[in-house]
Design a protein that fits this description.
With 206 residues, the protein is an alpha/beta fold. Helices cover 34% and strands 15% of the residues.
Length: 206
């Protein structure tokens, strides 16, 4: 499948052939759901915790007499039914990460790329670089391209001027090719790839 290559100024700079094995797969909502769930689970810190009965500093002396008090026979003030006592079934520090085969992860990325291509939401730029790190200049270029929410992916290290210029623009994100992921692709309205990024993707899934 052939698509146009344009510059940051919105001018045509040739065309490029996109591989059907990467950008032409059928839509698979189940695969995308599995990959996004795996990715978001992996992001969770899992550092939430509470103090249980054994973690509370307090006396274990019997609250009252065994008999004749007219109340329950409590043996410790650290019980969860008392103010200042431990929690009964609170969260503990743990990992929320789940396992997902590498083949499913790779298929999820290709499916996300194919979904953007099918909906005509992929733009290929000649390069992602700017002479000056000016946010106002970047906003003008984005207006020319007709972009309001986009993920930019470069083939190598992100150009410093380009990254600084786009950082303050709402709903815009830029990543190197190593950081491309299903969640960020689906979150953005448009996926913008550099020619170098397309080459790296084809090399990756060759």
């Amino acid at each position: 499948m052939k698509t146009d290559v344009i510059t940051l100024d919105g001018k045509k700079a040739g065309d490029i052939q996109l591989s059907k094995d990467i950008f032409g797969l059928e839509a698979r909502a189940d695969i995308l759901h599995r990959v996004v769930t795996w990715q978001l689970n992996k992001r969770r810190a899992g550092t939430h915790a509470v103090k249980f009965r054994s973690d509370i500093a307090g006396t274990t002396k019997r609250v009252g007499k065994q008999k004749g008090g007219g109340t329950a026979r409590h043996g410790s003030r650290k019980s969860n039914i008392f103010r200042g006592g431990g929690r009964a079934f609170g969260p503990i520090v743990r990992s929320h990460a789940t396992k997902l085969p590498k083949k499913i992860r790779a298929l999820g990325l290709k499916t996300a790329l194919s979904a953007k291509a099918a909906s005509k939401k992929i733009v290929v730029l000649d390069s992602l670089s700017m002479k000056d790190a000016k946010t106002q200049g970047m906003i003008k270029k984005l207006d020319k391209l007709g972009l309001s929410s986009a993920l930019f992916v470069d083939g190598g290290e992100v150009d410093a001027n380009f990254g600084n210029a786009i950082n303050n623009v709402p709903k815009m994100n830029v990543l190197p090719i190593e950081g491309i992921n299903v969640y960020d692709i689906l979150k953005a309205d448009t996926l913008v790839l550099s020619k170098a990024a397309v080459a790296k993707l084809e090399e990756r899934f060759q």
